[in-house]
Write a structure and sequence with these properties.
single chain; alpha/beta; Elongation Factor Tu (Ef-tu), domain 3; Immunoglobulin-like; 3 domains; 25 strands; elongated
Length: about 500
């Protein structure tokens, strides 16, 4: 029996640096499968600039916690063997694993080189703001701890196009473009040209770089057995690069390799343009929808819920959209902080988990909570995930017709027993009020009893002879209605 796919981002920024994460992943694989999770996105597994690195300060992509480099053998999350054991545990639980692929930059070089550079305006990288000069940069990566195992490739200044650190002056914050290089010409236009992000900026126009990355990706897939790719910071990498890379790897052993890119922009036109440029060879996270959720949670009753899907990727190109509520970058204290307020999270998760369009990704911190930042878990999120897995099937009838009270129904199908549900949500009033919406779910449900999974409405709804029910929600909340017979299957085992 087929079931809806649901991904979980199985990490967040503030995990402890105790080296036990891969073991924890392996231990939870069975529970996640029972919950209805079909895919997990794991953090970057390779050696960073320090043991505390979350994974995005990449040093050596061939070191998965195997070599004594940067003062440690293990990464923040554990050793290479433990990583592969975790992947194996997920596979035994019939869960696909997506690896986090960070190709834009390198950090923590081993040798300083003198490089001629031109300083560009950080706010407009198309404008030079000074004459050519010589700086010292940590641009040579020899990986002495690995000593050539897996790859003998040595990175140096020829393989990068810019940096922000001058070792001779001990200064950071400037954007130095290497004097014989140009920024990529097919790139996100923010700051004039957003090729440069951080660290040593990898030059994707260099043929040797492209060959090495292709070789590394084939090695990584063969070595670990991961099933898909989460591609970091694609807006900062020459757009044709991933079109070439994904085409190459799919022609060389991985023909159905799924990939989802992080193009951080709330402007739908930029997301659509990128998809077209890469020949739709990947999906993208629906950043536009995330910002709609954030704005709705901030504005409360001043937000028009009937328009919440307008201008989003899931609305414009649903098969290309990975929908999400929050992630490690939007958490409190992070660079893209835009954390959706707690009161709106159940509504947002209903919108990504219980509708027919988009491929949802649940955030670890929302499911388990975040004690470091004193953030609670999203109440009943497990039930919503299980609802998606078991009952969110069949035709969808939308009632997105009111600024403060919207809903939809799913008509169920014969393949999934007791499938079919109704969702009503409101951003007005408070939880002492009850709002209602009459919606069609289908004549085949005549006489069936539906109850609110979230428990906010105690009274049942009986479907009338025309297939309609009057479904209710508390003010500033959601009512999620499923057949009474379905409730025994919604027990969560953590």
């Amino acid at each position: 029996m087929s079931k809806n796919r649901t991904m979980m981002q199985y990490f967040e920024w503030y995990l402890p640096n105790d080296g036990l994460w891969w073991k924890r992943c392996a231990a939870k694989a069975g529970n996640l499968s029972d919950l209805g999770i079909t895919d997990v996105w794991l953090p970057p597994a390779y050696k960073g600039i320090s043991q505390e690195d979350v994974g995005y300060g990449v040093y050596d992509m061939y070191d998965l916690g195997e070599f004594d480099q940067k003062g440690t053998i293990r990464t923040k999350y554990g050793t290479k063997d433990e990583y592969i054991d975790a992947i194996r545990a997920f596979h035994e639980a019939e869960i696909r694993v997506f690896g986090d692929i960070v190709l834009n930059h390198r950090m923590g070089g081993d040798v300083v080189e003198e490089i001629d550079v031109v300083p560009d305006d950080p706010n407009n990288r198309l404008e030079e703001i000074g004459p050519k000069q010589t700086i010292k940069a940590w641009s040579k990566f020899t990986f002495p701890g690995r000593n050539g195992k897996y790859s003998s490739f040595i990175w140096d200044h020829r393989h990068f196009s810019g940096t922000d650190w001058d070792e001779s002056k001990k200064t950071c914050g400037q954007v130095y473009r290497f004097a014989n290089k140009n920024w990529a010409d097919q790139i996100d236009p923010e700051f004039g040209n957003f090729d440069y992000l951080m660290g040593m900026n990898v030059d994707m126009d260099n043929p040797a770089v492209r060959r090495e990355i292709k070789s590394w990706l084939k090695w990584y897939l063969d070595e670990t057995g991961i099933d898909g790719l989460r591609l970091d910071a694609v807006k900062h990498i020459s757009f044709p690069f991933y079109r070439e890379l994904l085409k190459d790897i799919r022609e060389n052993g991985y023909p159905v390799l799924p990939a989802v890119g992080e193009y951080w922009s709330g402007e739908i036109e930029r997301l659509l343009n990128y998809l077209d440029t890469v020949d739709n060879q990947m999906m993208l996270f629906d950043v536009a929808l995330h910002y709609h959720f954030f704005e709705a949670s901030q504005q409360k009753e001043n937000y028009d819920l009937s328009r919440i899907l307008e201008g989003t990727l899931v609305n414009e190109r649903p098969k290309s959209a990975v929908t999400f509520v929050d992630n490690h970058d939007t958490q409190y204290g992070q660079s893209l902080q835009s954390f959706v307020e707690d009161w709106f999270k159940p509504l947002a998760y209903a919108l990504i988990l219980l509708r027919k369009d988009g491929s949802p990704c649940v955030f670890y911190s929302d499911y388990y909570g975040n004690p470091v930042k004193e953030r609670p878990m999203v109440l009943n999120l497990g039930k919503l995930i299980k609802l998606r897995s078991l009952y969110a099937y069949g035709p969808q009838q939308d009632y997105l017709d009111d600024p403060h009270l919207i809903g939809w129904t799913r008509g169920g199908d014969t393949e999934h027993p007791y499938s079919g549900l109704a969702v009503v949500m409101s951003n007005a009033g408070d939880n002492t009020e009850t709002l209602s919406k009459r919606m069609l779910i289908g004549k085949e449900f005549q006489g069936h009893i539906f109850r609110d999974v979230l428990g906010g409405i105690p009274d049942p709804v009986v479907i009338d002879e025309e297939g309609y029910g009057t479904f209710m929600t508390p003010g500033r909340g959601a009512g999620i209605w499923a057949m009474e017979e379905a409730f025994e299957n919604l027990v969560i085992h953590d």
